[in-house]
Design a protein that fits this description.
Layout lengths: L18 E3 L7 H8 L6 E3 L9 H9 L2 H6 L2 E3 L23 E3 L7 H8 L6 E3 L20 E3 L10 H10 L5 E3 L10 H6 L10 E3 L8 H9 L6 E3 L18 E3 L1
Parallel strand pairs: 1-2, 2-3, 3-4, 4-5, 5-6, 6-7, 7-8, 8-9, 9-10
Helix pairs in contact: 1-2
Length: about 250
C-alpha cells in the first residue's frame, strides 16, 4: 500500500516514471510532490486518493514541473475533493499539454468546465456525476474534442433542445456517453437518435439506462453512420431486433 513512508522509493533520480497509478493511496500533498512531481509523467491516475490531498494539491504539484505542464497527456482525478480551502479555485489551465481528463464524482462546476474546455490540446473528457448545470462551455473545444462521457449529470438544467444544440457542434466526436441510472425520464437519447445532421464521425455511443430508446431509432441512427462500432443499450427497451445482434463489426452491450 502506498503511504507517506513507502512512497519514498520514488524520490530522487534512481528511477524514471512516465506513468503512475496511485488509486486509493494514503499519501499527503507533500509526499505526493516529493515522490512524483520531479518525474517526466505523461499519465497519472489518482482516483480515490485519501481526503488529505485535493485536486488543487495534485495540479499545483504537477504544475511545479514545467516539463509536466507541457507534456502530461492523461490525468484521472475521479472521486476527489477539488479544494479544501476554496472550492472555486481554478487550477486546470496550468496543464497546457493535457489531452485526456477524467473528473467523475467531483463537485466540479460550470466555471471549472469552462477552464478545462479552453485547454489547447484536450481531446477526451469525462465529467460524469459532477455538479455541472450547463455544458455550453464545451463549444470552446468543439474543434478538438473526440471523446465525451457525461453519465448521470444529475444537476443539468438545460432543455433537451439546448443540449442537442451543443452536441451538434461537436462534429469531431468519435465517442459519446450519455448513459444514466434509469432515474430520469429525459428524452435526450431518443431525440439524439432521431437527428440526421449530428455527430457524423461517431463510432461509439452509449445510451444505457435512458428512457424511450427503441430498436427502430437505434437502427436508423446506426445505418446513417456506417462507421459505428459500438452502441450501449443496457437497461433500455432496445436491442431486440436482428440488426442489433452484435454480429459483424458492431458491438452491442445489452
Amino acid at each position: 500500500l502506498l503511504n507517506d513512508a513507502t512512497v519514498g522509493i520514488f524520490r530522487g533520480n534512481q528511477m524514471r516514471l512516465k506513468r503512475a497509478c496511485i488509486r486509493k493511496a494514503k499519501i499527503s500533498a507533500v509526499a505526493f510532490r516529493k515522490a512524483f512531481c520531479h518525474h517526466k509523467l505523461v499519465e497519472l491516475d489518482a482516483t480515490g486518493v485519501n481526503a488529505d490531498i485535493t485536486i488543487t494539491d495534485i495540479i499545483s504539484g504537477l504544475g511545479s514541473n514545467k516539463w509536466i505542464q507541457q507534456n502530461l497527456q492523461c490525468l484521472v482525478l475521479n472521486s476527489l475533493t477539488l479544494s479544501l480551502e476554496d472550492p472555486y479555485e481554478r487550477c486546470f489551465s496550468r496543464l497546457s499539454g493535457l489531452r485526456a481528463l477524467s473528473i467523475t464524482n467531483v463537485l466540479f462546476y460550470n466555471e471549472d468546465l469552462a477552464e478545462v474546455a479552453s485547454l489547447p490540446r484536450l481531446e477526451s473528457l469525462d465529467i460524469s456525476n459532477t455538479s455541472i448545470t450547463d455544458i455550453t462551455a464545451l463549444l470552446a473545444c468543439k474543434d478538438r474534442l473526440k471523446s465525451l462521457t457525461m453519465h448521470h449529470l444529475k444537476c443539468l438544467k438545460m432543455t433537451t433542445t439546448q443540449i442537442l444544440d451543443v452536441v451538434r457542434e461537436l462534429r469531431h466526436l468519435n465517442h459519446l456517453d450519455i448513459s444514466d441510472d434509469k432515474q430520469f425520464t429525459s428524452d435526450i437519447a431518443l431525440r439524439l437518435l432521431e437527428q440526421k445532421d449530428i455527430l457524423p464521425n461517431l463510432v461509439s455511443l452509449d445510451v444505457s439506462g435512458r428512457k424511450h430508446v427503441t430498436d427502430k431509432a437505434v437502427e436508423a441512427f446506426i445505418q446513417q453512420r456506417p462507421s459505428m462500432q459500438f452502441v450501449g443499450l443496457l437497461a433500455t427497451d432496445a436491442g431486440y431486433s436482428e440488426f442489433l445482434t452484435g454480429e459483424g463489426h458492431l458491438k452491442v452491450r445489452l
